[in-house]
């Protein structure tokens, strides 16, 4: 059984502990701006007092619409310290997308980027959001308390109070506001630590992921606060700058995604980069092709630890263990105090034996309280204390989880269940394939057929027929794509995941 390390009541308690332990250690780095832990905590406290005076503490929500910056780090902690709930907003969202979320969240205040003012402020007027903090990242507005010693507001929030309303989806349909308590967010950091312990002697973490997203928060912002490490923030992802930062900032830990790892492996400067300080990489947000994992580790010497989760699960549920067997193609083992079961996709109750695919359900203290204003969807996702993830996977005899697909992405071809993720993996094995994504599309005869979209590696030719023959050698006949389209790029969501809904629309 995994040992549970120290758990803080909230992530603000976590940050305060880091400031006591290492007050003069670098906490945040972005370009020329560097902030140590003691001034970092003072800035959080100063802004928290300001927010508390503006909105009070009675179940208020405060939206944050900021790009990756020092300001988004300070603001996230400050909202929680003020006793309010963070509503992180994707800075790439259009006013239409923002309006839907803001109407549902009903924030008492919003902290937003001045660069978006012309398009956002008419929306804020229309929604009558009373308190607004307009910031220009980098102008020092939220670091003006750095030279002071400002105490945190008292009392700090309790673990059972809400910390986040994190909206998921939003490309089509209604976004769902995932409600996470302070305790669930904080305990999840400690749970991850039970499987992937970090050092306490100056880890330096590079954050290239968007900091409104649950993955970047858990594996970057809060991870650093837990281990009193340094978070080096990229304002936007650029492969050349990322590789330079690994060397210049002596990065030791890099949380990435399959899209980023694939992109870096294809970048000309990659082979000339010194990765000697890098000892650990994480992958999340989507399944990582085994071929990508092997190529990265051979080139850098830094292993990639793959995990699995979703916003509703705090967000982390499993990870490959640091001390233990790593299994290629697996998302690892359940974190401390977490149970994973595979159940029948139709009845949702029959627990399936190892090696059998079904719906993944999760139980643990990190699981959400529910979806805001969506009782029916909450009742569907949370049943008898279990979170039904909507993902398809299987466990092996040793408890290692394998992600096969999304339940909703499963195709039925001639009566057979087909999971497109398996086809993606087979295509990724081909030396000419850079990225691949398969989808099910309607077919009058078979019910559905599989079509795949492939981006080829530069300078490595292959035809669609070559790739179909490759699939035929590695898949049952009914799983082989009926068609393969070679494209310049795959459509992505705003957080870098392959947009299968867009691919299905193209295929149809």
Description:
It is a single chain. The chain has a domain at 410-507: GMP Synthetase, Chain A, domain 3. The protein has a five-stranded mixed sheet with strand order 11-12-13-14-15. Helix 1 (11-21) packs antiparallel against helix 2 and helix 6 packs across helix 7. The protein has helices at 11-21, 37-55, 70-81, 95-105, 117-127, 182-195, 214-227, 239-248, 258-265, 290-300, 375-381, 420-428, 464-474, 500-507, and strands at 26-30, 33-36, 61-65, 85-88, 109-113, 131-135, 162-168, 176-181, 204-207, 230-233, 253-256, 280-283, 304-309, 316-319, 333-334, 339-343, 358-363, 370-371, 382-383, 386-395, 401-406, 411-413, 416-418, 433-443, 447-456, 483-486. It has 508 residues and is α/β, with parallel strands linked by helices. It is built from 14 helices and 26 strands. The termini are far apart.
Unreliable runs: none
Shape: globular
Helix count, DSSP H or I runs of 4 or more residues: 14
Helix content: 25-40%
The CATH superfamily title of the domain at 410-507: ANL, C-terminal domain
- Quote the beta fraction: 25-35%
Structural class: alpha/beta
The rounded distance between the terminal residues' Cα atoms is: 48 Å
Strand order of the largest sheet: 11-12-13-14-15
Write the layout of secondary structure elements.
Layout: H1 11-21, E1 26-30, E2 33-36, H2 37-55, E3 61-65, H3 70-81, E4 85-88, H4 95-105, E5 109-113, H5 117-127, E6 131-135, E7 162-168, E8 176-181, H6 182-195, E9 204-207, H7 214-227, E10 230-233, H8 239-248, E11 253-256, H9 258-265, E12 280-283, H10 290-300, E13 304-309, E14 316-319, E15 333-334, E16 339-343, E17 358-363, E18 370-371, H11 375-381, E19 382-383, E20 386-395, E21 401-406, E22 411-413, E23 416-418, H12 420-428, E24 433-443, E25 447-456, H13 464-474, E26 483-486, H14 500-507
Parallel strand pairs: 1-10, 3-4, 3-5, 5-6, 9-10, 11-12, 12-13, 25-26
Antiparallel strand pairs: 1-2, 7-8, 8-18, 13-14, 14-15, 16-17, 17-20, 19-20, 20-21, 22-23, 24-25
């Amino acid at each position: 059984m995994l040992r549970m390390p120290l758990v803080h009541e909230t992530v603000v308690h976590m940050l305060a502990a880091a400031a006591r332990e290492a007050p003069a250690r670098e906490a945040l780095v972005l370009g020329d701006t560097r902030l140590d832990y003691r001034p970092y905590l003072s800035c959080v406290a100063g802004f928290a007092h300001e927010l508390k005076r503006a909105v009070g503490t009675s179940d208020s929500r405060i939206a944050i619409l900021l790009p990756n910056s020092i300001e988004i780090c300070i603001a996230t902690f400050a909202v929680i310290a003020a006793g309010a709930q963070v509503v992180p907003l994707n800075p790439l969202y259009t006013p239409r997308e923002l309006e839907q979320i803001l109407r549902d969240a009903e924030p008492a205040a919003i902290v937003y980027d001045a660069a978006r003012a012309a398009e956002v402020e008419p929306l804020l007027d229309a929604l009558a959001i009373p308190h607004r903090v307009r910031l220009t990242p980098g102008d020092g507005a939220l670091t003006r308390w750095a030279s002071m010693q400002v105490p945190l507001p008292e009392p700090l929030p309790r673990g059972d109070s809400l910390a986040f309303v994190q909206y998921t989806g939003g490309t089509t349909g209604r976004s769902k506001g995932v409600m996470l308590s302070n305790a669930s967010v904080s305990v999840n950091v400690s749970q991850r630590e039970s499987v992937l312990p970090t050092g306490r002697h100056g880890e330096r973490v590079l954050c290239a992921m968007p900091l409104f997203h649950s993955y970047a928060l858990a594996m970057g912002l809060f991870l650093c606060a837990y281990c009193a490490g340094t978070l080096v923030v990229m304002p936007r992802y650029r492969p050349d700058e990322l590789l330079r930062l690994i060397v210049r900032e002596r990065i030791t830990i890099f949380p990435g995604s399959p899209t980023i790892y694939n992109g870096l492996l294809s970048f000309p400067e990659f082979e000339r980069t010194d990765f000697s300080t890098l000892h650990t990489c994480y992958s999340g947000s989507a399944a990582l092709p085994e071929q990508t994992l092997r190529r990265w580790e051979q080139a850098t010497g830094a292993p990639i630890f793959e995990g699995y989760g979703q916003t509703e699960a705090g967000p982390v549920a499993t990870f490959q263990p640091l001390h233990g067997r790593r299994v290629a193609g697996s998302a690892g083992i359940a974190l401390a105090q977490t149970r994973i079961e595979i159940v029948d996709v139709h009845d949702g109750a029959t627990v399936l034996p190892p090696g059998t695919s079904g719906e993944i359900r999760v139980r643990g203290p990190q699981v959400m309280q529910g979806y805001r204003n969506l009782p029916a969807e909450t009742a569907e996702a949370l049943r008898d204390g279990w979170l039904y993830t909507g993902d398809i996977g299987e466990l092996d005899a040793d408890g290692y989880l394998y992600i096969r697909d999304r339940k909703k992405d499963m195709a039925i071809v001639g009566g057979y269940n087909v999971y497109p993720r398996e086809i993606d993996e087979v295509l990724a094995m081909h030396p000419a394939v850079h990225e691949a994504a398969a989808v099910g599309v309607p077919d009058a005869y078979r019910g559905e057929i599989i079509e795949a979209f492939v981006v080829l590696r530069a300078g490595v030719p292959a035809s669609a027929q070559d790739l179909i023959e490759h699939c035929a050698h590695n898949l049952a006949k009914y799983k082989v794509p009926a068609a393969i389209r070679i494209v310049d790029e795959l459509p992505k969501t705003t957080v870098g995941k392959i947009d299968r809904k867009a691919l299905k629309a193209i295929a149809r």
